[in-house]
Amino acid sequence: MAEKQALNIVKMKKMKAEGVPLSMLTAYDYPSARLAEEAGVDMILVGDSLGNVVLGYDSTLPVTIDDMVYHTRAVARGAEHTFIVADLPFMTYHGSIDESLRNVRRLMQEGHAHAVKMEGGLEICGTVSTIVSAGVPVLGHIGLTPQSVNTIGGYRVQGKDARDAQRLMDEAKALEKAGAFGIVLELVTEEVAEAITRELSIPTIGIGAGRYCDGQVLVYHDVLKYASPYREKRFVKTYADVGGIIREALGEYVKDVKQRAFPAANHAFGADEGVLESLYGAAGKGARS
Description:
Keywords: Cytoplasm, Magnesium, Metal-binding, Methyltransferase, Pantothenate biosynthesis, Transferase. Belongs to the PanB family. GO terms for molecular function: 3-methyl-2-oxobutanoate hydroxymethyltransferase activity; magnesium ion binding; methyltransferase activity. Its cofactor is Mg(2+). This protein has two domains: about 10-225, Phosphoenolpyruvate-binding domains (TIM Barrel, Alpha-Beta Barrel), CATH 3.20.20.60; about 245-285, no CATH class. About 40% of the residues lie in helices and about 15% in strands. The longest helix is centred in the middle third of the chain and has 17 residues, at about 160-180. The chain contains eleven helices and eight strands. Strands 1-2-3-4-5-6-7-8 form an eight-stranded parallel β-barrel, surrounded by seven helices. By secondary structure, the protein is of the alpha/beta class.
């Protein structure tokens, strides 16, 4: 495979202008990042969704900056030629600007991310502007913001009425003005997502936001049904049942071990002639049999 050329934020804006959709996928470790890059995805998001799908939490809230640095660094090793965005986790960019910048620095210098993602609207625009001024690209994220799930009433679709639609439009425009290079729209009604996409000069990337965003992002484990149990989601298209294949394969392994079908003779290594005699002596040469 020819060496892939990583995107940058200038190319992404050009793709929007030319109507070329952006493909984005989450990844949380070296092998998934490697496979995503080989598949040709434009961008990889190291999302704090790793809390749910990799670390076993029931939300993204327990995910720490140390978790994000660790997983981003692994992804960067696997996808050296792909643009990597890392999530700033819960409450790591809502304190002092110095603390926020320290966390951003860790994701960039230790995690080797190319950009950071931040959830929120008007309330974070000042921080976004400062981070961008420091030379760090920022991807915004509005609509359903999982870090705020306890204050927005759960995992529900956003932009269903006129007031909420206007709020989302105002937030998107404010984030663009603050310097965000793009915005994730999560669980936003298709009509509102389309309107926001038309109004902005920066790309929108949808997840559960319909057909008219400038790009799409899905979680690696959702695309591959790599979970147990797997919970179906209306906005997800699964392309393989990897979880089922893995479960079946592991079951076959257990069965083979129990029945002594594995390992077979072709999985074993032979010693040099005379080794058993040296261990047991001539009298014990046939002990193993």
